[in-house]
Amino acid sequence: MNNMKQRTLTEADLRRMVEIRNRLTKEQRSLQLHKFLRNRQAMVGLVIFLIVLFAAIFGPSLCKESPVALNVLNRLKPPSKEHWFGTDTLGRDVYTRVIYGARISMIVGVSVGAISGILGLIIGIYSSYNKYADEILMRICDGLKAIPSILLAITLMTALGADIKNVIISLTVVNTPTMGRLARSAALVVKEQTYIEAMRGIGAKSRRILWRHIAPNIMSPLLVQMTFVFATSIITEAALSFLGAGVPAPQPSWGSILSEGRTVIFTSQWMIIFPGAITAMTVLGLNLFGDGLRDLLDPLSS
Amino acid sequence: MLKYLFKRILATIPVLFIVSIVIFSIVYIIPGDPAAVILGENASQEDIQALRTRMGLDEPPIPRYFNWLDNILHGDLGASTANGTPVATMIANQIKPTLNLATFAMLLALIIALPLGMWAAYKKGTWIDQAVTVISLLGISLPSFLLGLFLIMIGAVKLRWFPVSGYVPFSEGIGAHFNALFMPAFALGFIHAALIMRITRATLLEVLNTDYIRMAKSKGVHNFVLVAKHAFKNTLVPVITIIGQSFIIALSGSTVIEAVFGIPGVGSLIVNSVSRRDYQVIQSVVLLTALLNITVNLIVDLLYGVIDPRIRLDR
Q1: What pLDDT does residue B168 have?
Q2: What is the pTM of this model?
Q3: ipTM for the assembly
């Protein structure tokens, strides 16, 4: 109920997705894919995302400078040929730091999206199958979801200590309940389908039904949700680092660069404009891509 | 209605229980000895032991949990581990700016979102609709603290219309109060404006497609009356849900916005407590926010029953 920020899919969405998936033939699916490839917004989103991902993977090895190399004589220099995004309060190259920061954002986004997706799948599948597991797991999910996500993340970070590994753990704890709830609802929809009943009728073991037949069929809504979780994780990581509770100091994170920029906002606005624009573009790209993915998997939604 | 009310209240009890356990357990996930972690590397053994006793860490966890719960139910939120001030006093001293900020943010969001969302639905497919869609996509993609920074650059550094940071209490002048609060409230409210806009547009579109609206139209009801009176009422249920949730997210989101704009609210209290590792304060604030969240959700659910009696029968 609480994570509206990341736009969860509703029960009606899930029902449509599952039914559409069942109805489509192979040809219709390839037609759908073509439509997706022609969806301009989704493709723009994908391209933006791939550029950032590319920069995160290969950028650091292309950068001449180190993101932590101090050069106090060169502090707070505006953008120039040597320093595209200018330099910060300690004379470090902002461009290099933004590229290295992209690496942190991508690591956090990918890990949180993937881990919470997998955990959510497991929780959802078992809850849809076992009544007792359902009661216990769903109450825990509701409890966790009752705590606003940014506060839960801050609290966990304070307890665990500032570190990128702990950022991933905290954000996974924050996002898994939503994923679990979503996977459970989707699994319940799939469970009602005739072919599952037929499987049960011919005596298939429940483990086989759950993992071989239900799990693959609930992947599509989970994938859409994972792109949204990816985007919110980037925002939350930046917010945590902005508050000083995320990735620790010398490591460059978009949030900590912006936090430093806040202190020199009157004189050195390049420290906010460039990293800020790139953060916003990345999140925008992911949201556009996620929306396109949703339209692909659920053509009736829009 | 009474049965519905009772059932809803009963359903929140396990959630409350889980929330309290989660928040209580946080001290136990701290790697190593929490007291030693709080006091830092240079603390003496006696100081650490004293803090352990003060935090109750020497007692076994289960009796400690029930003790803690009992205290909270009696209104005792404990005292700050850093300076011994009662947490309730600290929160009471700093709640006002946060509440004002979140309320103002929600008002701004509603003023922006409701008319624009309705207008977009009414003019579906035109450039107005597209502009509204773009605005709402931007709102969702722009982190609030980033929007805050951009607003400071434009509104405070360039135009000099608003102060860069700080808070002016209501008692020191209404104009100054709202002037200082405008940019933070806008930064905080924009994402909610985007969400409310989306949901208003989508729901209104659905309602405009129903038979009774077509009927009213064919009977010659004026377009404005049609949307504002006949259709609007039926868009309320989803919109109210999202307003309730948005308010809670705005309250918790003010943590970051208060840091950007230097507002001395509960958010600053949390951020300061993070750097001091003052778990008692964080625990209490988080617990209160979760409680508030559960209460707001309950009220929203009950409001459904009032607005749309069919929902009462469903459950």
Answers
A1: 84
A2: 0.88
A3: 0.87
